[in-house]
Design brief:
By secondary structure, this protein is an alpha/beta fold. The chain is built from 6 helices and 8 strands; from the N terminus they run αβαβαβββαβαβαβ. The strands form 2 sheets. Strands 4-5-6-7-8 form a 5-stranded mixed beta sheet. Strands 1-2-3 form a 3-stranded parallel beta sheet, covered by helices on one side.
Length: 219
Amino acid sequence: MPTRTDHPLSTVLEQVESSSCPGTLNFHCHTICSDGSLTPEELITQATERGLTHLAVTDHHSSHAHPAMRDWLSRQRDSGRTVPTLWSGMEISALLKGCLVHVLALGFELNHRDLQPYNRGDAVVGEALRAESVVRAIHAAGGLAVLAHPARYRLGHDLLIEEAARLGFDGGEAWYDYEMQPHWRPSPLICETIDRQLRELGLLRTCGTDSHGIDLSGR
C-alpha cells in the first residue's frame, strides 16, 4: 500500500497550481455513470482533444466509467495518438466532524474489495460513512483520499481541513470554481487560503472542474 509520498500520483499533484485546470490537469469530473451528462467515451475524447495530460473521472460512488475510457485510450495509443494519463477515481460521501462531505478517491486499485461498498451507486450508512472508515478503505485499495471542495460545506473549510489532516487524508481540492461559472476559473482568495493551509499541513493539493454538463471546461 503506497504512502502519500511514494504514491505515483503524488509527483503529479505536487505540480498542481492555480492555472493547471482545466487545460492540463483535471481530477474531478463526472459522466453518465453518476450524475454527469457525457458518456465515458465522450468525456475522454474531449479531454484528449483539449490536451489534458492527467485526468481522473470521479463519479459519485461509481468507478464504472473507467474500463470504457481505458479501452478507448488504448486504441488511441495504438494508433500513435498522444493521450492523457487516466487515473482511477470516485467521489464518496462521508461524515467529517458530523458534517456530510465528499471525498475524492484517486489512484486506487480498481475493483478492490475494500472499496466495493462505496462503488454501488449510493452513499453507505452507519460506521462505513465515517470519514475515517472511508479513508481507511481508500488507503487499503492503494489510493489517495482528498477532501473535495472544502469551502462548500456547512462547517468552515479551516476546521474540516484540520480534521481531515488529523484523520490521515492525503490532500484537499485547492483549486475550485465556487462561483460555478460557464468556463471554469478558480475562485480567488478562498482557493489561495485553502492552498496555503494544505501546504502548511503537508497535504497534497488537487484541482478539478467538477463538470456535470457537456463541456469539460465548466461545471
